[in-house]
Design goal:
Helices cover 34% and strands 22% of the residues. By secondary structure, it is of the alpha/beta class. The structure holds iron/sulfur cluster (2 copies).
């Protein structure tokens, strides 16, 4: 069994063609700009939408752990005491509470994936597994990919690249295309913004290159953090050094995830940062193209 927090059918941005994207819960990094913070924890968790709450206190009446309290009429949610039993979300009359993360078997997920088989066949699409970081649920991931291969469905894995070697070796035979995040250039900056060290990521890329796996390098670009010429230049150099990298794609920052951090009881350090503008996106793409054109 695995824990997933979303399934998007008819997705166009996670690999070639029309795809079904499965979002796994759990991630070992904490990227400051993450737009899926509901993926951080491995298990189910509570999300609270304050704008829908009328203060009826039905949640407080049912919660066995006193997670919901009211101070001078203001609803306070003590997330750290929540055991994700889901009682309050069931009882809330206004959908102000939601339990994120559902346990499903690989066969159940495959049943959903197979419904869109005709779209895959006509568009060259297939299954994309995303997250979170899918490799934090290794057995479930391998089982699901194995089922997809049996059905001859094209598979993409969206990953941060922090993959233990033994698992990566197994994945290479089951994944048709790796969508590999390249987050930031510079060890100090990487640790500051993601809490990761780059050694395992580099080993992953080297192994993918050795095994001649197909890779698209994906660059989340965050204004003021990694939109530097040096970062684009290094991404282009990685492509030159690793022929397995078929393309380099920019994923411009979007502030869409900011509200979710608060809804999960987390503090968002980039809350004043607006989404990238069309002008910024054009500028970044031009920079990247210029560096990619260098032989
Ligand atoms: S999910 Fe359960 S433990 Fe968590 S706040 Fe709701 S009722 Fe309380
Ligand atoms: S049950 Fe829903 S609407 Fe009522 S106080 Fe709780 S969160 Fe707010």
């Amino acid at each position: 069994m695995g824990i997933i927090f979303d399934i998007q059918r008819c997705s166009y941005h996670d690999g070639p063609g029309i795809r079904t994207t499965i979002f796994f819960k759990g991630c070992q990094l904490r990227c400051a700009w993450c737009h899926n913070p509901e993926s951080f924890l491995p298990g189910p968790q509570l999300q609270y939408f304050s704008h829908r709450c009328t203060g009826c206190r039905a949640c407080a009446a049912v919660c066995p752990h006193h997670v919901h309290t009211f101070k001078e009429g203001v609803h306070q949610v003590h997330y750290s005491d929540c055991t994700a039993c889901g009682l309050c979300a069931e009882r809330c009359p206004n959908q102000a509470l939601k339990l994120i993360g559902q346990e499903m078997s690989a066969a159940q997920v495959m049943d959903v994936i197979k419904r869109d088989r005709s779209f895959y066949e006509t568009s060259g699409g297939g299954l994309t597994i995303s997250g979170g970081e899918p490799t934090t649920q290794p057995e479930f991931l391998l089982e699901l990919l194995g089922l997809a291969k049996k059905e001859s469905i094209h598979t993409c894995l969206e990953t941060n690249g922090y993959i233990p070697e033994a698992l990566l070796t197994k994945l290479i035979s089951l994944v048709d295309l790796f969508l590999l995040d390249y987050k930031i250039t510079g060890a100090k900056e990487l640790y500051q913004h993601t809490h990761a060290s780059g050694a395992l990521w580099q080993h992953t890329l080297a192994t993918l290159a050795q095994q001649n796996a197909a890779v698209i390098l994906r660059l989340p670009i965050i204004p003021g953090i990694n939109d530097t010429p040096a970062h684009f230049e290094h991404a282009a150099q990685l492509k030159r050094d690793h022929p397995c990298i078929q393309a380099v794609e920019i994923m411009p920052y979007h502030a869409i995830g900011a509200a979710k951090w608060e809804q999960l009881g987390l503090s968002y350090s980039l809350k004043d940062l607006p989404s990238a503008t069309p002008r910024q996106k054009e500028h970044w793409q031009a920079l990247l193209n210029a560096f990619l054109s260098v032989q």
